[in-house]
Amino acid sequence: MSLAERKAALIRMARSTVAIPLRDEATRCTIWLKLEYLLPSGSTKDRVAAFILGHGVETGAITEETIVVEASSGSTSISLAMACAVIGVRFRAVMPANVSRERSLIIRRYGGETVLTPAAGGVLGAIEETRRMAAADPRVFLTRQFENQLNARAHQRETGPELIQQIGTTIHGFVAGVGTGGTLMGVARALREAGHPTRIARAIPEKGTACFAGQPEICGGIPGIVDGLSTILDPAEIVLDEDIHVDEREAISASRELCQRGLPVGPSSGLNLAAARILARRLGPDRTIATVLCDRMERYFSTDLFGDLERDS
Known about the structure:
Order of helices and strands: HEEHEHEHEHEHEHEHEHHEH
Shape: globular
Number of helices: 11
Largest sheet: 6 strands, mixed
Radius of gyration: 19 Å
CATH architecture of the largest domain: 3-Layer(aba) Sandwich
Number of domains: 2
Helix content: 40-55%
Strand order of the largest sheet: 1-2-10-7-8-9
């Protein structure tokens, strides 16, 4: 099978998820949840990986000899590892040393390589390392998730239109946490293009409460939500509403609630649900709010999402 044929198979895999309604009795609003964790590797980042790599193959920037490299704390690297396995090119994830072990194992199971950078440098330190790799080796293709406009375009062309078609009525509010900003920016553009009078808001976790089990030195932060690194999000273009701040304990609680409803998600999904409920209160009764459930719970076994079960066992 040629590289182009493998690319086509990848794009077919990483497309289309369902959305389901959740009635919020406190506000009499309906919150629609797009189940992005149902994508092949378990994350909405599959769309981005397929879109960026597909474009790279189409333009000739990716060949059989390419080494795809990304700086990522987890989900994007997992999606790229899966996508590179499908199209048959090497993948190297560069991540801070404090990422959860299960994420590294998933990447390696797909055949990807992992390079750990000092935890103190965070994702920015990992990004700097990818740039050094690209400068030293012409085979390296950087996907640049925090600045690549193809990230947002994947959601503008696919996630957003799917969501609009599945809900089938006016969408009054959309909210999502921001890591790269691609989901929020892309879906917002799709909503604007379709003429929806949607209030668009960013969910921001209040840091300092959620912890990695057994690793108190890295307490704080919802995995995948990164401050200040995205150059994709343009608040003025999409007319961003007032930010919605969510206590991390509330985000973790909402994640556990979703799991107990049979929706096996990670902490960022709980953040989005909690923020959607706050947006519903802001907009008033009988409104339609939408958000995404970003990824699956299995990559968070060593985080506070499972901390209560660890304590009880």
